[in-house]
Amino acid sequence: MGGFHVKNFGCRAARADGEAVGDRLRCEGMSEEAPSAADVVVVNTCSVTAEADREARAYIRRTHRLNPAAKIVVTGCYAQRAPAELTALAGVAAVVGNSHKGLAPGVVLRLAASSEPTPPAASQSAIAPAEAPSFQSPAFLSLASVLNASPGKAAVLVDDRFAHSFLEEAQLTPGAQTRPNLKIQEGCGNRCTFCVIPQTRGSSRSLAAETALRQVEGFVAAGGHELVLSGINLGRWGRDLAKTAPQASNRFSLASLVRQIFAETGLARLRLSSIEPMDWDAEMIALMAEFARPASSPARLARHAHLPLQSGSDGVLRRMHRRYRPWHYVEKVEALVRAAGPELTLGADVMAGFPGETDAEFEETLALIRALPLGYLHLFPFSPRPGTPGWALHREHPVPTVVVEARMAALRTLAAEKSSAHRNKAVGAQLEAITMHTPAELAARGRTAALTENFLPVELRGSLPANQLVRVHVTAAVPNPEGGCDLESELAAT
After folding, report:
1. Does the fold of domain 181-423 match that of domain 3-157?
2. For 3-157, which CATH class?
3. What is the CATH number of domain 430-491?
4. Whole-prediction pTM value?
5. CB count, 10 Å around CB of 245?
6. Buried b (16+ CB within 10 A) or exposed e, 189-209
7. Using one digit for the tens of pLDDT, what is the confidence trace for 278-302?
């Protein structure tokens, strides 16, 4: 069947897409190889910033130089947003937008079986019809008919219907990913002025609860212990499903799904990925109080919450069209800490240099971050995305690049301080953790990589296999070159 390689860029939900493609290809008999040896290389792109686009193009060029015979399939958000840019790159055999990502495994299989050479750069692409049929089996797809491609030309499957955007996932198991992502939601309808996601992923859509529960049950049966629920706008899971059954709309909320998972499966630990501040409602926060800090047994819900902040300035949030204000954000954080306890690890996304951001507005962001019990930050410079309102705002009120760089440096310093302070608080504590696949350098020192349920990476003394639930005693915080600190631990006495 040939060999494949999947390279993922971007968010956790995007990574879940790439993992699903890889799982499906393995189930169909393909072997996973290094990029230099693969017959087909899948590049699962992000397009949230111009830098993300640049990184994807650089990877495609590097892969083609390394392995000229490889057929490159580009998918993800960049593929959806600008397919013509990608078909102009040498080695690209197909561009599969998020609208047709469910077809990606079949495209790869057909390319692997094809004797056609890789297309040259700047070949004329063939655009697939919007009504391309849904994925059924590899044999159902034909590059000549479904992809509508001519020999030697890159094929493109992209439209704005997003009818084939959910991947048919293979059963999740604890393999290469000890803590795999179960993607239960796709798309977003928030329309933030800086964001291209509604264009590249469409409106919000939810995986059926029955399908999600089957995945969890199968994961537990395969020996899995920790699963991550992910989505593009995870907190909106179920709202589209509720429209089809309004008489039972209370069943279609993320909180109700989490309760079903705990009631109907034996999953030891569930972790939630990023959830918008306004979607942490009373029901969601009650879950933290009930399942993240039980009185007598390990927490089934990880004490970890990631709430995108973007800015601590009311004025900037309004220009961003974000649906909360700084004081709303503070209220949500305070409620979560009360529910889960001070061991809760809180994370946030923060953007520097949004159009028109003044020095005073940036100082408001720094002040809010200093006041919040955040454990880590994901930092981004503003990047104008074509087709968004932010693109026009940037033309009118750009923040100079040198100013953005200075603000990013200030945020990185503050992020290191917040991370070190939060991790130092864990020294002396006993925490539940799961062992990870340990890097060779760490294993050579007789250590095991692990992650605590409240999202603290630790180095555990001794050698243990991956996917083991353990209780650790955090013994020390050691400064690292990034300005933060790493945690050392040992198995806790039982």
Report:
1. no
2. alpha beta
3. 2.40.50.110
4. 0.88
5. 10
6. ebebbbbbbbbbbbebbbbeb
7. 999 999 999 999 999 876 678 999 9
